[in-house]
Amino acid sequence: MGATLFLWMSLTPSLLPRDWMFQGLIGGISAAIGHGIGIVVAAAARRWLAPRLAFWPPSTLVQTRIRLGIYTICAVGTVLMLVAAVRWQSQIADYMGTVPPTVLGYSRTIVLSAVIGLVILATARGLRDESRWVAGLLIRRWRFPRRAAVAVGVVVVALVTYLFVAGIGVRVGYAALNWAFSAQNDTTRDGAVRPTLPEKSGSPASKASWESLGFEGRNFVSGGVRASELSRLTGRPAKEPIRVYAGLETADDTDARMRVIVDELERTGAFDRKTLVVIPTTGTGWVNPTAAQTMELVADGDSALVAAQYSYLPSWLSFVADRQAAADAGRALVTAVHDRWLTKPAEHRPKLFVYGESLGTQAGEGAFDGLAEIRDTVDGVLWVGPPNSNPLWRSLTDRRDPGTPETEPTYADGLVVRFANDAEGITRNPREWLSPRVLYIQHPSDPVVWWSTDLLFSEPDWLAERTADDASAMRWYPIVTFWQVSADLGNAAGVPDGHGHNYGTQILDGWVAVTNPDGWTAADTQRIRNALNELRGHDGPEK
């Protein structure tokens, strides 16, 4: 009954559409957890409740009928819940513009849930048998009291398992993953070619060799649009954009890579441009090509973008394995660029901005001790899709103005920091917005923003609010909701623009709001949006 109840709850909708494989995964995990809770409840009932019931145990015939009734309810209820799950998933899919599932196709989730649940159950019973073996050994050899031996057996097996998983298992796994992804770092995306323009790192004039930039670095510097194409798209004169990058193999350590970065900025004339944008990256050093194109189009190429790689691992692995590395890398990059920027005459310095997306927002936040330092250091910040664990984001959200929702909070009347779910939300607040401006863009359906271990045992405000957004049909269930949102992470960027972790050209609206270009109009924004849609795919993969 516990397993089936938790399976039913896992079939309810969450933030994003789930295919049968993701649903089977969380269904199996949830069912195994429900089974374990059921065992605990049953053991407690047998020990403390059953002896006090005069009618218990009933006859064998009554027990058989009860079991048959329970099995029937579980089976029929599961079929009905599966049909309801398909309807819920179809509603979310229609809302987000994805392909809805069918009942027949989605029925595979029950089979996969059963397999995963049985594997977890077998593993748990294997550990239980090990603890019993240890307890038996203590009783036979050292005459331990039975209860003490059982307790010690459980503790010993739990400790050994933890040490293996958290120690040897994690270290070996981390080393293996690092090796695997470092091999990919040596490859180059089809279509990425070494730049010849001196404005790009990796070019013949660059101090950062093409080979050292890594997979994402080569994508970044080989992309972009030439000045002539920028002029065609915007209808205004344009300069050749500058893109500066350092990979993990560009220099031996962080300090040396930052020296290369600063030298590249000097060599390319980045400090003579109109805008200079520091982009703390996601794990592997990925820079969103739509964001990079946006910055160059808005500035008519009179811009310099600078980024650096700090890991071989993709964002989700970096987030799990070493979040501090992101913060340290962000601080090193922003500090190095800012220190050199300060040496330039104030009247000739470019506007200095920071952009971050996903784990890149955590790297960006790590560069500052708080909001005051941000305002003293840069001319504006745009952060897109921030993880729930970001310290500054968490602090600002927790201290939001009373009565404002967690999905789109207002902090201090939006005087400096603002939050928006979409393009309309960026300009919704009519009050004055002081410079430097800080803007967070976050979708109500983005699991990267809302995933937290707190989901295990407490209902978050963003879900309790349940306004008319992507998550309106979602409900919170202890333990189960955590696994649902965890599964949503796997499809976070696999949905159309405007949903999940896919922000598309909303980055343009955010960038215009933060940089606040002189004389900018709605027509300018639409012209750049049209250009971005035309360029989609020109600058490499979106993720």
Automatic annotation (TrEMBL):
Keywords: Membrane, Transmembrane, Transmembrane helix. InterPro entries: AB_hydrolase_fold, Alpha/beta-hydrolase_catalytic, Alpha/beta-hydrolase_N_dom. Residues 11-224 form the Alpha/beta-hydrolase N-terminal domain. Residues 242-528 form the Alpha/beta-hydrolase catalytic domain. The chain crosses the membrane at residues 20-45, 66-86, 106-127, 148-170. Pfam families: Abhydrolase_9 (PF10081), Abhydrolase_9_N (PF15420). Residues 190-209 are annotated as: Disordered. SUPFAM superfamilies: alpha/beta-Hydrolases. It comes from the Bacteria. The keyword Hydrolase does not apply. This is Alpha/beta-hydrolase catalytic domain-containing protein. It comes from Gordonia malaquae NBRC 108250.
